[in-house]
Every structure is written in C-alpha cells, then in structure tokens.
Amino acid sequence: MRISPIIKTQQEIQFLKDAGIKVWRNWRKLRKEVIKKSKVCAVCGYAKKLEGHHILPRHIFPQYALIEQNIIVLCNDCHFHIGHWNDWKDYNPSIRRLAAEAILLKKVHEEELK
Ligand SMILES: [Zn+2]
Ligand SMILES: [Zn+2]
Hints:
Layout: H1 10-38, E1 50-54, E2 71-75, H2 76-83, H3 95-113
Antiparallel strand pairs: 1-2
The structure holds zinc ion (2 copies).
C-alpha cells in the first residue's frame, strides 16, 4: 500500500468529526437496546455490569459497527478476559461459539440437577 500524506481542509476535518460523533451516539443507543433485550452476559449469565461487544471488531470491520447482529452482550469481566483475551487490541474470533457452548453447558447442568 502506498502511504501518502492526506491534507484535509477545516471543513473536511469538521465533517469527519461530526460523522464520528454521530456514529458514537448511534452506537451508545444501539448498545443500550441490545443490553436491554438480552439482559444477561452471553457467556456467564451475570446480569450486572453489562457491555456491548463487537463480534467482528470495529477497527477491522467499521461497516458492521452499528449492526445489531454483530453485537454480543457480555459482563465487563467476560468482555475483557474472553471477548478480548485480556488485551483491548486483541479480539476473540470464537466468542459466538463460546457463548453457545456456555449456554448449552448450563442447560445440561440444569437438566442434571433436576
Ligand atoms: Zn460474563
Ligand atoms: Zn469488545
């Protein structure tokens, strides 16, 4: 890839800033809705300190940042330790599978306890 300096005008900079703020506001709104719907952490079932996590990370797939299907609800522990492998720059590509397995495991245990 060729790296060239891109000179932006004041208007262009303002436009990008406004677009960024808009995306951020929409993300906060969407995150709130998704958390309200799922109620618990998709991995551990905890119902507090819930956060929205992008399954396909925002920095690599910005086009999916505001798509509900790309968001999974995790508690803040699972978010950092499992969603991001203890590193906010990293991400867990198997988070959806892991959450599915966690739910099934919980179901199996509940059946056994009956
Ligand atoms: Zn959790
Ligand atoms: Zn995340």
